[in-house]
Amino acid sequence: MPESKIENISDTARWVALYRAMESERPDAHFRDPLARRLAGERGAAIAETLPGFKSGLWPMVVRTCVFDELIRRAVETEGCDTVVNLAAGLDARPYRMRLPPATRWFDVDLPEILAYKRAALTGERPLFRYQPEAIDLRDGEARRAFFDRVGRESRQVLVVTEGLLVYLTEDEVGSLALDLHAQPTFRWWLIDLGSPRLLKMLRRRWAKSLGTGGATLQFAPAEGTAFFRKFGWKESEFRSTWDESRRLKRQMPLAWLWRFLSRFSSAQKQEAIRRMAGNVLLERM
Question: Cα(267)–Cα(233) distance, rounded to whole angstroms?
């Protein structure tokens, strides 16, 4: 029987892959990821069965996937992005499911173990554009800077993607990463997901114990929101509220109608705080 306990931070990629599989299998799915269930594997299913409130995490993950897809496609197809760098890519299968121009370069960066598992699981599958995995421990500043420098010199306009990564880092670690990315003039955009301190408290109550067994600590949720990144050379270009997007995509949380009703009695300031409690953000270099 597969192990159901989260043993390391890479195991969270299995659980997220399962969310993508669940959406893909709906008749009204917003995206189709036929490889997601294979990537999640039996271990992903076992983790989901024991994870408290697993299903409650489905709707925001679906929203995040949809919004990231939209912003990646727009950057590549209409804004001149020729290279996508996906940091801590995990079991993301976009190079195998998104139809981007064939000349698009896509780098999946992650630990050697997760990339080896992914390569084995996808044996026989072919990416739809120029795909290259890069085995790098992002905690190794020298190695990541050397990689960024190489990609920066070989590219015209780069979109960096960190999906589900920053929340596990400290503010100092995020700041260091932001500076390293900004040091490359061709790194124009940075796509992230971001939560508020209030959301962080909620997530810790639900999942801290389960994640803690694998050394995955939920940490990053700056009180100043996207303004945190300005001192490192990045500004908010677009904020997609998870709350707003869930309504647009018809993937809302249970009892969302009640939250909307109660929010009518809140001040405009509180309503905006709720709207920005979680979101997907396109940052642009200043």
Answer: 33
What is the per-residue pLDDT for 214? 63
Distance CA 66, CA 262 (A): 27
Q: Report the 3 state secondary structure along 106-124.
A: EEEEECHHHHHHHHHHCCC
**Among the listed residues 52, 8, 5, 60, the one whose alpha carbon sits nearest the alpha carbon of residue 244:** 60
In CATH, the architecture of 11-285 is: 3-Layer(aba) Sandwich (3.40)
Over 90: is that where the pLDDT of 89 sits? yes
Q: 238 by DSSP, 3-state: which?
A: strand
Residues 6+ apart with CB under 8 A from 152: 158, 184, 185, 186, 187
For the ranges 2-11, 84-93, 110-119, 142-151, which has the lowest average pLDDT?
A: 2-11
Confidence band for 206, pLDDT divided at 50, 70 and 90: confident
The confidence score (pLDDT) of residue 81 equals 98
Residue 197 has pLDDT above 80, yes or no: yes
The predicted pLDDT at position 23 comes to 97
Amino acid identity, position 99: R
pTM of the model: 0.94
Q: Judge contact between 282 and 189, C-beta under 8 A.
A: yes
**In the predicted structure, residue 31 carries a pLDDT above the cut 50:** yes
Domains of the chain by residue range? 11-285
Sign of CA dihedral 280, 229, 144, 78: positive
**DSSP secondary structure letters along 59-91:** HHHHHHHHHHHHHHHHHHHHS---EEEEET-TT
